[in-house]
Amino acid sequence: MSAAVSGQAAGTPPAAVPFYAPVGDEVALFEHAFRNRLPLLLKGPTGCGKTRFVAHMAARLGRRLYTVACHDDLTAADLTGRYLLKGGDTVWVDGPLTRAVREGAICYLDEVVEARKDVTVVLHPLTDDRRVLPLERTGELLEAPPGFMLVVSYNPGYQNVLKGLKPSTRQRFLALDFGFPPPDAETAIVSQESGLPRDRCVPLVRLAGALRDLKGQDLEEGVSTRLLVYCATLIAGGMKPAQAIRAAMIEPLSDEPDVKQALLRVAEITLG
């Protein structure tokens, strides 16, 4: 299948719960959605922690997690399953969405607007009071057990006329707006994830804020928390800060030489 899928074991012990630092009431909202069998939509920029949050919550709730990275070629069959030839026989193979429904797991569709339009049609019966998944090719009608939850995400900054969720789809989900953490919280996250002392993370977070202010001018997207962690990890590993900043906070943002020079100048001014 063409879907990029990862699975996380059920019943993950507390020590294996991925680190996540809440910045609001997102943990409580997710738990309420899970208990009440409601689907959840996460909105936010690239690298702000949406995927980590879902992994954290799946482990916290002790549920198996199927993550699907959506793309232009992702079809409904990639999610639900298809007949394949095995040893001369034709056998049905469940897709990640079908496996999640059968097992009572959490299915997370990352950047769902990138998938083809027929994908949202498949999701509709799972996002209302029916909570069913019709499999036309096998004639099955799977009822989602209480432990099943559907979570989807997308980056509103990349939406256009051709790629976006229709109102009829959006209004089937609870929605949670993700942004970058406040500076103090982001500093703690970067330090925790990279091992770089907190006081050395402070200027990196300050620089990220300055670069994010340029979004919509010379940049399509600002520095993500993910890139901040990469930068701090390089510095903690012994790389000179100037090299780490260029590799993790400048080069990923643009291919234009003049834009990169301007970003480097912003870095020099911000860091003194």
Short key terms for the protein model shown above:
single chain, 272 residues, alpha/beta, Rossmann fold, two-stranded antiparallel sheet, 11 helices, 40% helix, 18% strand, elongated
Question: How would you summarize what this structure contains?
Answer:
Keywords: ATP-binding, Nucleotide-binding. Helix content is 40%, strand content 18%. It is built from eleven helices and ten strands.
- According to CATH, the homologous superfamily of the largest domain is P-loop containing nucleotide triphosphate hydrolases
| C-alpha-based Rg, rounded | 21 Å
Largest sheet geometry: 6 strands, mixed
Number of domains: 2
**Rounded mean pLDDT score:** 90
Order of strands in the sheet with the most strands?
1-3-6-9-2-10
Number of strands: 10
Distance between the termini: 51 Å
- Helix content percent band: 40-55%
- Identify the CATH class of the largest domain: Alpha Beta
Strand/helix succession? EHEHEHEEHEHEEEHEHHHHH
Can you tell me the overall shape? elongated
**How does CATH name the architecture of the largest domain?**
3-Layer(aba) Sandwich
Structural class: alpha/beta
CATH topology of the largest domain: Rossmann fold
Low-confidence sequence ranges: 8-15
Strand content: 15-25%
Number of helices: 11
